[in-house]
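Cross-check.
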Amino acid sequence: MYSSDFELAATEAEQVRELDATWFKAWLPIAMRALSVGDFDTARAAYNSMAETSARGATTASLGLADIELLAGNFGAAQKILEAGIPVDEANSNNYGLAVKYMALAEALLAQDDSVAALEAVEIGVGLAGSTAALVPAALIYSAAGNPDKALAISETLSQKLPPQPRAYAALIEALVALETGNHVQRGSRRSRNRESRAGDRATDRGIGNR
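Predicted model, tokenized:
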């Protein structure tokens, strides 16, 4: 998104807040505009205001505040925010919120060289994840933490999905794992097997594979 889009979104968000001050998402463009220019203080203030709007606003703001600390390199502060927000999502049975918070917690822990705790956090997050948006960061954390097999397992899962975006993420994960491990040949052969598998599935769906 270009800076002009942030400005427009922020202006429209102010109008929305005049109509409904409890709509928590109206604070998001303010935070994004501030982050786009490195203004962490204004972004924090926007998320703190969001937290006061509703329970949904509070859980979203918690993740946003943690993201700011991750961007700023304050990994211990991010960890504290996430560990405080996770029990709230548990009480509200907010599995999506829990999944993304555990992923962010894993990132914060990994940045503090606690790979064991980071892998434990990402395992919990994967168990709760119900979307591609949560699986992709999990794969990246697995790879960075020295567990490429689990990263490639997620890539394999995404490569079997029909929409093009998950398959693109699968190729990206394989490429990043290959760069970290130096195993470029493995990446090529696995990608070839995935193509063959998908082609076989499509043929079977059309009845060709049974001929």
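Residues 185-211 have pLDDT under 50 and may be disordered. DSSP finds eleven helices and no strands in the chain. Passed to J.P. for a second look.
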